[in-house]
Amino acid sequence: ALQMAQIPFLVVDYNQHALKALKEEGVATVYGDPADKDVLDFAQVDHARAIVIAIPDLHTQELIIGHASTLNKKIKIICRTHHEEDQPHLKSLGVQTVIQPEFEAAVTIAQRLLSEFGVAEVGIDGKVSRLKIEHGIGWCDTMQSIMNQAQFLRRLSGRERLEQALSLSDFVRSLVMRDIKKKKLSPESVAKELERRIRLARY
Q1: What pLDDT shows up at residue 91?
Q2: Fewer CB within 10 Å of terminal CB in the chain, N or C?
């Protein structure tokens, strides 16, 4: 996908066979241990906008995160993990986006099932955003989910609209209180952002 979009990137690995195959496809590579600071420095991480850590081992991830953050304080870190319980720890180290393959696969299955049962696309988006938020994806998706559900409400009427509105209200309140208790957000910032987003959704 990055090649199709003509976005320059390179792969750092110590698997020679994998690197050979990538080179044959025209991908830039660096041979070495990505957990080694000198290797990352040679790969010019200090000039990178983002780094993707696909290695599942937590200790190796911690080393790469630490070295990458030292070499480039503005770098965006995207990290893979197979364990949901590791997400808070990785984010505390500076990872902006954590990808859990099993969860992403479950979300895709849910999307297709909901579509098969006739759930509207906007309704699917809201439910998927809600699932992601409840698994700790973050406030940005919280706001997106609120906007999706608010737009969905505009298409409804009568009792159905009332039930959806109550559900959205309970959802927002529970998420806001959870984030405030965790000291991630202040009540003032929550209220301000919520008001701005709902105004944008024209609900």
Answers
A1: 87
A2: N
